[in-house]
Design brief:
By secondary structure, the chain is α/β, with parallel strands linked by helices. The protein folds into two domains: 61 residues, no CATH class; 191 residues, Vaccinia Virus protein VP39 (Rossmann fold, 3-Layer(aba) Sandwich), CATH 3.40.50. The chain is built from eight helices and eleven strands. The strands form three sheets. The chain has a seven-stranded mixed sheet with strand order 7-6-5-8-9-11-10, with helices on both faces. Helix 7 links the parallel strand 8 and strand 9. Helix 2 packs antiparallel against helix 5 and helix 3 packs parallel to helix 4. The longest helix is centred in the first third of the chain and has 19 residues. It is globular. 40% of the residues are buried. It binds S-adenosylmethionine. This is Putative O-methyltransferase YrrM. GO terms for molecular function: O-methyltransferase activity. Keywords: Methyltransferase, S-adenosyl-L-methionine, Transferase. InterPro entries: SAM-dependent_MTases_sf (IPR029063), SAM_O-MeTrfase (IPR002935). It comes from Lipingzhangella halophila.
């Protein structure tokens, strides 16, 4: 898999194994190596250290989650186009989560920041109502052309997707207040707090905002980014803003690069 599936902070703070307690940093207090059966897909048993065993079992679990809902040929082709363009298309498990959320709230109007080559858009469209319209923004016209073709290959008529070329920070303010059911943000991590403000304006009550790359920065790790990177601070900030906002009901999902979702609730979440 080309994507990171779990950051340090997504691990439980501590948990038990057959051989002892594992702290949140992944350190196993029992340092002795022990023999475990080879995890599925590995050819032979060998002696793993306790730490290796924990990591292997966690990796197997995450791999299972990523593969549980399979992509079809259309999605695989869109994801490959995104990978070739090196834009980081969402994983199958993240896509399945988006489709699920869109279907659960009966989404008819969805805004996407970061069209890419269409992977996330196909998943969203598959969860939306049959007359729903995906409004997707990207600065790169050639990616949007590729996405348009991917939607067509997936069987969606052209009028199901409104592709707007431009910078999201200029485009979003032009969209109508409280008119959308779901906003998915998958671009410009350094601007995540501003996208949250825009999403709060665009969403109806009961609408859902979702940020990708939520595990790029956690309380325990800066993920692939350095602590001084503005994107690290912004990802962390949006996590805190969402968790601390009484009008939002948050959910952090350890799929793909991490999805942070929140429902706009009329009352205090409790
Ligand atoms: C991670 S990719 C999106 C991947 C896509 N969601 C998918 O699953 O295939 C990020 C996208 O954001 C676009 N982008 C970068 N800066 C942007 C901006 N200021 N406004 C809108 N889109 C932007 C890039 O061109 C790129 O296609």
């Amino acid at each position: 898999m080309g994507h990171r599936v779990m950051a340090a902070a997504a691990r439980p703070r501590s948990f038990s194994t057959a051989r002892g307690r594992v702290s949140g940093c992944g350190c196993v207090r029992d340092p002795d190596p022990f023999t475990v059966p080879a995890p599925r897909g590995r050819s032979q048993s060998r002696s793993l250290t306790a730490r290796e065993a924990v990591i292997a079992s966690r990796d197997d679990t995450l791999a299972h989650i990523e593969q549980y809902v399979a992509e079809d040929a259309t999605l695989t082709s869109a994801r490959r186009a995104g990978q070739q363009a090196e834009i980081g298309p969402i994983s199958a498990a993240s896509g399945a989560a988006l489709r699920f959320l869109a279907a659960a709230i009966g989404a008819r109007a969805v805004v996407e920041v970061g069209t890419g080559c269409g992977s996330s858009g196909i998943w969203l469209l598959r969860g939306m109502r049959h007359d729903g319209i995906l409004t997707s923004v990207d600065v790169e016209p050639e990616y949007q052309e590729s996405a348009r073709e991917a939607y067509r290959n997936a069987g969606f008529p052209a009028n199901r997707a409104r592709l707007i070329q431009g910078s999201a920070l200029e485009v979003l303010p032009r969209l109508t207040d409280s008119a959308y059911d779901l906003v998915f943000v998958d671009a410009m991590r350094a601007e995540y707090p501003r996208f949250l403000t825009e999403a709060m304006r665009l969403l109806r009550t009961g609408g859902v905002v979702v940020f990708n790359h939520a595990l790029d920065a956690t309380p325990l790790s800066d993920g692939p980014l350095s602590a001084s990177d503005p994107a690290t601070a912004a990802v962390r900030e949006v996590g805190q803003l969402i968790r601390d906002d009484d009008t939002l009901m948050p959910l952090l999902l350890p799929v793909g690069e991490g999805l942070l979702a929140a429902i706009v609730s009329p009352t205090t979440a409790g």
